Protein 1
Amino acid sequence: MTSLPLPPVTLVLGGARSGKSRYAEGLVETQAGPWVYLATATAGDAEMAARIAEHQRRRGGRWQTREAPLDLTGALAAAAKPDATILVDCLTLWLTNILLADLDVENECEKLIAALPGLDGPVVFVSNEVGLGIVPENALARRFRDAAGRLNQAAATAAQSVVFVAAGLPLVMKAPA
């Protein structure tokens, strides 16, 4: 069953285990398809591998899954089609990969945001809201938190729709005009 078309860019924010991914998947599944899942996670340990497997089980075989741990901008450009809906899960894992690869975080984020207006078809981004807790005790964690906050602000500015999810409940923060 299809609903109204999604806007060009939707951002779904929330904390860990808030239901943001499930909510974003539901948004995409209201569209006719095909549905493209750009996965940014890497299975660095058994716990992360289990999380990835859980997401894959939930989606089943109805989605086209593509790995995009570093070149998210390129993966978006390659996947964007007028009849396809893309889900990127998630921006904060992508940001982690960028930091750990010692790439230029600001440049990579700017490239991503600059590419959004030129995409064909809607894209839904999932991202963690990490600015609601205490100030981290180490420099890398503070750098990540600050970069994630800046990336989320830029994505929210570029998006026509922004939804915050807490306890599985969506709160629309910005609705399409």
Protein 2
Amino acid sequence: MVQIDRTNSASAGLDLYTVAERHQSALIDAIVQEQIKSWLDHPYFVSTSVHRSLDGVRVFTYSQWRPKFDHRSLPRPSVFSEFFPPDSLLLEVTASRSLSAEVEIVVGDRITHLAEFRMTSTHQPEMIKRTSAELERAMRNSPGLLSATFHRSLDGTRMFNYGQWESKEAFEAILKQPGFNPEQPYWKGLARNEFHLYNVVHAQSAAT
């Protein structure tokens, strides 16, 4: 189990991989056995978690580093030459709500919803305002939503929502909520959005 640092005392690294379905397990093994193994010896490493998409063609790692270390400067193990390089970003938390005191990332059947918003850097400040307001509405009206944490990319061009749900059915129910309007989403006019669903398959902190 690891926890998302909502105070931004650590920087968050997001590595988004696209992979053929038949290679998804091999990529996860490479991340756990090669990449994370090398990260554990780094003095600035805090934690990481590995997520497998339910559609079989995506993997992402959510890592945390301090103090404000850029994980992208680290060499990639040679085994990764067999896979497409990840889309790698640095993030910081802009808003977060959860049913518990901490946002915990644990291996298991819990569903992670990662929503990506692409925008111009001039629109990111307004997106931060809108996502903060949406967070309050979603937590009030979404049974099964355990936590939601919005992040902004430091380059200004993206935002991500890391949401945790009790089940896939709980997530799908939000699409039918009265406050959810696919024709007038809160990001309309500011960003393009896509999302995917994942399970956490590995979680590692520097202390374990």
Protein 3
Amino acid sequence: MASDRGTAHNGVAPSPLGSISLWLLLFALWLIMNASIELPVVLTGAVIALVIDWIFMRRSGTWWQVILTPKSVVHFIAYTGVFFVELVKANLNMLRYVYSPRIDIHPGIVKINTGLKSPIGRLALANSIALTPGSLVMDIQDDVIFIHWLDVKTVDPGLATEMIAAPFEKHLGAVFG
């Protein structure tokens, strides 16, 4: 199958710019997690990021359609700040439940709608929701996400979307589409 070389399993050639942006993201995460710019750390990170990039782009070349632009970088940084704020708020809310003499919660499953079109954008949104205490993503079907919410404030999909996903969607939409 020599004709399949350079294409992903779905028959679409991986985007060179998408591959570069994925490598840059992986490499930056490596450097941040290691908190070092010593030559062995940098070289190891570059190689690991390259291998992961090659594997993902070869196996599914269309899932990572992100092109790094100054605007997307600014939105990603803003998203990181929003995520941190929402994470702190959710943790403080959980502390309130844990230390309350009487736990007054109303758990349930709510449906939210997302305007994110890319699979990686939806994945980032689902992970953002799942990583904040008190919520768990149960299923994603097209533009609908089903969430188990520890304390359901509303069952209206529009209001639930505004309360749960809106803080993240603005910035994720600018980064991932």
